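Changelog excerpt

This revision adds worked examples to the README so contributors can see how folded entries look when concatenated. The first example is reproduced verbatim below.
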Amino acid sequence: MDAYDGGSNARRQPGAPSEPGDAPQPEGPEGPEGALTPGEPAAPSQPREESPAPDREPDDVPSAAPDPYAEPTDTRPSDPAAIRRAAAPAPAETAAAPAPHPHGDPHPPTGVAALSLRYQIGVALALAVVAVAVCVHIGMVFLHVAPQNTVTKQHGRAVDDWVYPEFEQNWKLFAPNPLQQDIAVQVRARIRSADGGSRTTGWYDLSAEDGRAVDGNLLPSHTQQNELRRSWDLFVATHDADNRPVGLRGTLSETYLRRIVALRLERDDATARGDVLVSVQVRSRTTNVPPPKWSEEKVSVQPVYRELPWWAVTAGDTEGSAR
């Protein structure tokens, strides 16, 4: 393409007429009026300062420029108090309320507080009823185990109706004369051997065996703690001093005690293979607990025995009377 073609991208010679639509060239030092004469040094070009754009919205209206010829006006207050108030720092603004959580309350109420008012009242009434019932029960049991007093004399029937039979207590709290005796139940037996002879065993201290089983045991069984002791207490309560039964429970207590001692002898291997347990005899050994050293009380420490008659052992008293 020829360099002098008149296309839109063609290069023009200096001084060539401009094409229609070309922007007029600004007249400055380089223009016709400010052309440099030959031999004159060119003046350094000054950078053009661009004024920053005003920070305002398009709809803002610029304020009027102040009058440079107007006299200045003193706007400071003449009152000293007003001056101090103007110099004092402005009070801190009230903190704005926090924005609501996008997912509701970040710490919603739990438990009873989360229920409606009606259910909260119901829960409060239920708790009050339970608290009153617990207090009444504790008071009734306390009166039942406490020594005889004015309240129990007047309302003893109501206390017994509340306690018996579900909450029966067989011991006394704050007993004026607590048990101060050590009672041991012992038994011996007559055995018929396989060759037809008979022999009498020595005394087996069943209470001592239970004591050794309970001592050091964190979870002792109920039979080790109470079976033998309760059976002896029942026998003593239903028999007189001559060991004769009193009432219908006397015979029942005798059978109960005989079966317990017969089973204990079988467990202790009192009989050999082929031997037969013929009869048993039970006795109690009662010893007074010695008083403390600082006490002036004097008690006898000699044991007292109570021997029962020989009881014949039947087939129903033991799991297997012959081996």
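The second example, added in the same revision:
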Amino acid sequence: MGVLRGLLCPECQTPEENAEAEVKEATLDYAHMAPDDEGRQQVAPIGGWHTVIAMEHPLVREDKSVHLALSVESAELRVAVGSQSDARLHELFDGACATVVRAALDRKQAQPGQREIKYTPMDDLGADTILLIEDHALCEDGEDRGELMLSFSPSLNPHLLDAFAPPVAEVIRSVLRST
């Protein structure tokens, strides 16, 4: 089956069509298109994603205090979880991301836990990465206060909020507004 395409030479474009093309070029990531299930090319917004994948992340693999790493690269939302992660972490996420996180946690045989999550901006974290890590007290003095920290940059890529369930995204927004 062929794909119908249209082409309009720049001289034939109306000012409105030219403006629309300029806006799309400035806001859409054409360098990282990917086909959907039906073969149509998906285009993500710049900084956003069209694909959610589970993969290994060196931080999660090497540091048992890191339970989850979420990042955007090449229009992919990349999720990494460790076997030490709480099996209910998928409840933080929405849509396809929740499905990928749940499957990754199942593969790692993660067990359910009872930890509270604190939301913490970190200045030295990149705008396209979110980490779920042990609370500082456990890392420093070994005392487990039953907390995990969802850590993100104060200049967080706003597209990352789309991965989270609405109540979680709203908490992150309110923390970012207060910083």
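Reviewer comment on example two: The beta strands are 28-35, 41-45, 51-54, 66-73, 76-81, 116-121, 129-134, 147-152. The chain is about 30% helix and 25% strand.
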